[in-house]
Every structure is written in structure tokens, then in C-alpha cells.
Amino acid sequence: MASLPIDIIELILSKSSLKPLLRFKSVSKSWNALISDPLFLKNRHRKSKPSNSQDLFICCDHKGAFTLVKLKDQKLEIVQELGTQSESYRCHCHGLVLLATKYLGRCTVWNPSTRTETGVYTRLPCFYGSAGLSHDPVTDDVKVVIVFSIDFFFVYSCKNESPMLWYAEHKDGDPPIVYGQFDEKKGVCVDGAIYWVWSRHNVKKLIYFDPRIDKIKYLPMPKDAMESKMFFLADLGGFVCLRCEGRENENTVKIWIKEKGIDNNSWKYLTTIDDFGNVKMDIQSFEPQCFVGDKIVIRNKNDDKLVVYSLLDKTFEQYGEMERKCCASGLIPYLQDKTSLKRP
């Protein structure tokens, strides 16, 4: 644990119950100082209030049935059925879920907490680009973003109910579209921004949409990851998580965590996984979900089941049996957001 980034240590400690927290004070002077910090105690108290829903998640099966579940004793406990949606899950942000149909120029922003939704006409089908949801912290506006290239994308403001098709200006008036491809058909939404892995001429780069200025920017990647051939992004408990294959061994997975904040482009090395044990999984099927204590809950996309990786023991174990396969979407954090969306 001593080698973990301070943000991760603070996140793990903030989720610990009181008795283990008191024991953790004896681990080191730095831990004792952190746990004794009044600001840490205040934030922990705020997060531990009954209204907090950090242990609640939404899952979706391959038929579009959404279920509210609770992580409890290394098992998924079904809390409530949320109904079936005709459109497929794309991504989530700020307690909202983006749904879309492959070939239609329309998508839906759905609030599972209020059971309200709004339709968005995107002009071009989501299939041709990569979709994402963002949250502007300045205006408290949720935006639907579909990126077709790094300088040609669609933005819809849910607050203003206004669409915008944006492209970079060019001297002759034509959009100078920089062609490339997105490794995923959905972006990773963290801290209000949307992140993608973008490829062009066999060169991979990290880009993100800044909702404050409606622009695409480049995100520097960790130096040790630049020579890897495969990159994947994920939302790991509210952190942008980058995983890539090791240079020496293709079966090795290295993981970095981006520090919090849209403007903070620093990365912290988290861990290297070089032994998957009996778990049949590779870097492409390996999808980190969230932290539970000093462990990472991981979705195995090969079978849509969950496994747990211990950062201390560096071992895998299977998650408890689920009543049914409901992790085709991964674990979507459930927030009791009171935003009421209008049906068009």
C-alpha cells in the first residue's frame, strides 16, 4: 500500500469502517496524519451519510434490462428492477445514462433515479462516431457528445436543449477532418470530461472533450506506456484508469491512474499484473470497475462476470455468484440525482 498514490490511499481509507480505520492509524505516520486530519474526517462523514449511494450500481444485460444492485460481502445483491430499454447502453456520467440505437441519428439521456428521459437527435448515427456524456461544472449542464474525428463532432446541451455540429475552421471553408479511429464506440466519462483512445497511422493518442469550452484536447500519457501497442481506458471508481500491455510480456497489464481534475494531466502508477492465475482474461477483456478496500473489482468481458484483484496479495478471486448475468454494461454508479429530464 505504501507505493499506492495518495489519492488512492485516501479513497480506500475513506470507505473503511471506523474500527479498521483506527487500526490503520498505526500503519505509518503519514497514514496517522491523514486519518487525523479534520478535513479527511469531515469528507468521510459526508460520504457515509445514509443518502450516499456509493455501494449501489446499475447493471444491464444483453436484452436491455436494467437492474439496481448493491455490492455486499463480495456479492451482487439485486435491489430493484429498473425496467427494459429499447436502446443500447453507451456510457454514463453524473448519474445519467446515455442510450443509443446503432444506425439511427437519435439517442436518449436517461435518469434512472427519476425515471425521466430526453431524446436527442444527433443528425448522424452514433455508429459513425464514438459517443459520450459530459458535465460542465461551471453551468451544471450535461452534454451529449458524439465525436467523428478530433475536429468534427456533435454537442447537445441538455440544459439549453440546443444542438451544435462543430468542426475546425479552414481557409477555404471546408472542414479539415483529421481521419482516424476510436478504439471504443463509447467514451470514458470522469470529472465531467470524456476520454478516448484515438488511433491514426498506427499511432495511438489519448484525447478528451473539455465541456467548459466544447473543445477536444490531447492528454499526455505516462512515459512508460508510450511504447506499448495496446491501450485501454476505464472509469475506476471515479478515476481515469489507463491500462496497457507490458513491453516485455504481452500477457502483462500495467495500470496508471490519472490524478483528479480536468486540468490535471499527471499520472500515478498503480500496479502491474503479470499473473492472471486461473482467470481466463487478457488485456482486451480486462475492464476495471471500482475499488473495494484494497481490492479492484474487474469485469471480465469474456463472460460478463466479475473478479476481484488484491493490490496487496496480487491475486485474483472470483466474485460471488450473481442471480443472473447482468454485467454486460459493467457497473454503472448509481447517484440519486434529482435532475428531471424532459421527454421530447
Main beta-sheet strand count, sense and barrel state: 5 strands, antiparallel
Percent of sequence in beta strands: 35-45%
Oligomer: single chain
Number of helices: 4
Structural class, from secondary structure content?
A: mainly beta
What's the N-to-C terminus distance? Answer: 50 Å
Helix content: under 10%
Q: How do the helices and strands follow one another from N- to C-terminus?
A: HHHHEEEEEEEEEEEEEEEEEEEEEEEEE
Weakly predicted, low-confidence segments: 48-52, 169-177
Overall geometry comes to globular
Secondary structure tally: strands: 25
What's the average pLDDT? 80
Radius of gyration using CA atoms only: 20 Å
Description:
With 344 residues, this protein is mainly β. It has helices spanning 6-14, 18-24, 29-36, 38-47; strands at residues 56-60, 65-72, 75-84, 88-93, 96-100, 106-111, 116-121, 130-136, 141-149, 152-157, 162-167, 181-182, 188-190, 193-200, 203-210, 215-219, 231-236, 239-245, 253-258, 267-273, 286-292, 295-300, 305-310, 316-318, 332-333. Strands 12, 13, 14, 15 and 16 form a five-stranded antiparallel sheet that branches. A hairpin with a 4-residue loop joins β15 (203-210) and β16 (215-219). The longest helix is centred in the first third of the chain and has 10 residues, at 38-47. It comes from Castilleja foliolosa. This is F-box domain-containing protein. Residues 1-44 form the F-box domain.
